[in-house]
Amino acid sequence: MKHFIATLIFLTGFLSLLPAQRWRELTQSNSALPSNAIQSIFFDGDQSVWLCTQDSGLVHYQNGQFITYNSNSNDNFTADWANQIVKSPSGTYWIISEYDGLFKLKGGQFTQYKDDGNGHNLEYLRSVTLQNGGPGNGGAIWIGTWGHGLFKFNGNYWSYFDQASGILPDNSCLALACEEDPNSDSSVVWVGTNSGLMKYDGHNWEKVTVGNTDDLWINAIAIKNGGPTFGNGQLIIGCETGELALFDGNSWNIFNMADPWNPNNAVNDISVDADGIVWFGQEDEGLGMYDEKSLLSFYKDNSGILANDVISLATRSNNDSTEVWCSVYGKGGEGYIGISIYTQARVTGLARQENMPGTFSLRQNFPNPFNPSTRIQFTMAGTEHVNLTVFNALGQKVRTLVNRKLTPGSYTATFNAGSLPSGIYFYTLQTQHKSQTRKMLFVK
Question: 204, 265, 205, 253: which is closest to 228 by C-alpha?
């Protein structure tokens, strides 16, 4: 199988406008939201939203009202720390918790599962996916844990997989996703562990090398356009060490989002919207977006997001726009802040608005140091002719990235230094009235 790695490699001088940046907030300060500590977000088919929280259990947000299920509510849901919720085609909900096991919600009634009946307690449950519709629909539910292996439940029988059995490389399974054949009952379950990616085709387990690495710590898995096994889609994974990797069934395309000076820039969560745009939550670098043309980040300095750590996210689209809901965490004692909601006009929609930044600004390139390419982001307050130029340490011009008239907005250019020697370079953003320069380091 052919593999290759692309680390932020785009055509030199590629420029991308961020369309229709509109931000709003859903927090305890501006609403009746029971908790800011959101672990995951799930959009239901009726336009309501389910929120799994760390301290207030399960929250259902519908028509502006919050219904909370936890140890203090008058029902059989006893978990104050809920981590994730999924819904079967028949309308059954499955909720995983940190300490109180698995819950099924059907017909308004909760059923709790505390263990698998074979001596394995259901605790520290962190990831979940449904296979072939889940239990009760001829399929199963898969549950990954922090340090306690992997479970499968078909509604009647449990199966358990761990490192001791020789199946898993690690007992922590933080990411799960299932591909299904639309023409048969065949499926593939992808399992992201702290020590690599596993694939199960219903008969055999296989450890999958990501690029040229087989021990990545995987935090998130998403399926795009049906996935690579039964269609022409992709498998997308996010890693603790900053990799965002896309697999088309033949080769990997890997973007390394980690700054060498801050290598813990984890990719925490991934969601693919109705237009195939990949959104991903990052540690320290906010909300990421990849649309196969540009790779962008929304953080506090260039957008309306509340904090730079995105714990989880979910997307939903209508005819005109796509919403990205981000659970955010602020460092420096802020803790969980609530939800930042970003709305972007769809290209196929009827409405399209452009963000109007108030200042002319040039941001530090990322990553820095870099090899061989890096992103340079800047904003324009007015319509002007813009030059973005790269110079070497001697002041000699080595590359012109932008030389055109631009309207107000936020832009990203990519500089590929693959043909240049290692060293210090400077990049200058200049208009008729203003100029700003920053320094960057290229290390081969």
Answer: 253
Q: Are 405 and 15 in contact (CB under 8 A)?
A: no
The CATH number of 15-345 is 2.130.10.10
d(C-alpha 186, C-alpha 131), whole Å: 10
Tokens encoding 359 = 């200042």
Residues 6+ away with beta carbon under 8 Å from 189: 129, 131, 142, 176, 177, 178, 199, 200
Rounded to two decimals, the pTM is: 0.76
**Which residue is associated with the tokens 């962008």?**
296
Enter the tokens of residue 262: 């801050």
Those residues of the chain that have pLDDT short of 50 are 1-21, 348-357
In the structure encoding, which two tokens stand for residue 159, read together?
């199966």
Q: How many CB atoms lie within 10 A of CB 419?
A: 9
Q: What is the distance, to the nearest Å, from the Cα of residue 404 to the centroid of all Cα atoms in its chain? A: 33
Residue 99 is given by DSSP the state: S
Rounded Cα–Cα distance for residues 376 and 359 (Å) = 16
Per-residue confidence (pLDDT) for residue 356, from 0 to 100: 44
Can you say whether residue 29 is alpha, beta or left, with left for phi > 0 and alpha for psi between -120 and 50 degrees? alpha
Which token pair is 114? 């505390």
Q: Is the peptide bond before 19 cis (omega within 30 degrees of 0)?
A: no
Tokens of 413: 């250019």
DSSP 370: B
Tell me, yes or no, if the two domains 15-345 and 361-442 fold the same way. Answer: no
Going from N- to C-terminal start, the domains of the chain cover 15-345, 361-442
- Structure tokens of 334? 């802020």
What value, to the nearest 5°, has the Cα angle with vertex 439 and ends 436 and 441?
A: 155
Helix-, strand-, coil-residue percentages of the chain, each rounded to 5: 0, 50, 50
Of residues 179, 181, 129, 180, the one with CA closest to residue 150: 129
pLDDT given at position 4 = 29
Single-letter amino acid, residue 165: S
The reported pLDDT for the residue numbered 156 is 94
420 in helix, strand or coil? Answer: coil
Class of domain 361-442: mainly beta
Query: Do 36 and 21 meet the contact criterion of CB atoms below 8 Å apart?
Result: no
- Terminal C-alpha separation, the chain: 27
Residue owning tokens 């230094």:
417
E-assigned strand segments in 307-434: 309-317, 321-330, 335-345, 361-362, 373-380, 384-392, 397-406, 409-416, 423-430
Which residue, chain included where needed, has tokens 């020697």?
A: 421
Q: What is the pLDDT of residue 51?
A: 98
